[in-house]
């Protein structure tokens, strides 16, 4: 069995980010500068993410990507507590307000790659992000 390519998802996210246009600059502390070697980018072009990859959801339950992805999905990778750069770089909410029906035609899956981001932080960020979307969003399956 082959796993589906993430290229369509990446294309969707890239187009969504381009549709938003430039983000306004916000006053903040100067961000530290890093060399490319310090950032640690390890490209895996042409590979796929295994659908059996286990994650913790905002309620602390273990779930797999296979359980979460059942429609076109915008996958965002974030630090939930990143000061100054990560939260302002969330242009997806604006795109969702102009696009197809969220939760029905597509979904957004935001994953933190910071092990210090606990489920409670994820739940708060989910609430914050949903508050930025003005279109009605149906509840996830199994939630009334």
UniProtKB/TrEMBL annotation:
InterPro entries, A to Z: SCO1/SenC, Thioredoxin-like_sf
Keywords in alphabetical order: Signal
Pfam families: SCO1-SenC
Signal peptide: 1-27
Gene3D superfamilies, per database record: Glutaredoxin
Top-level taxon of origin: Bacteria
Family recorded in the similarity comment: Belongs to the SCO1/2 family.
Protein name per UniProt: SCO family protein
Organism: Candidatus Geothrix odensensis
């Amino acid at each position: 069995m082959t796993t589906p390519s993430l290229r369509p998802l990446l294309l969707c996210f890239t187009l969504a980010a381009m549709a938003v246009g430039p983000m306004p600059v916000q006053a903040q502390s100067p961000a530290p500068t890093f060399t490319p070697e310090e950032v640690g980018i390890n490209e895996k072009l042409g590979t796929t993410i295994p659908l059996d990859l286990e994650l913790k959801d905002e309620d602390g339950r273990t779930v797999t990507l296979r359980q979460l992805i059942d429609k076109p999905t915008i996958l965002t990778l974030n630090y939930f507590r990143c000061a100054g750069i990560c939260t302002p770089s969330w242009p997806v909410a604006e795109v969702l307000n102009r696009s197809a029906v969220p939760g029905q035609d597509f979904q957004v899956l935001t994953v933190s790659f910071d092990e210090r981001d606990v489920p409670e932080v994820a739940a708060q960020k989910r609430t914050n992000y949903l508050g930025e979307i003005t279109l009605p969003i149906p509840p996830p399956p199994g939630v009334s």
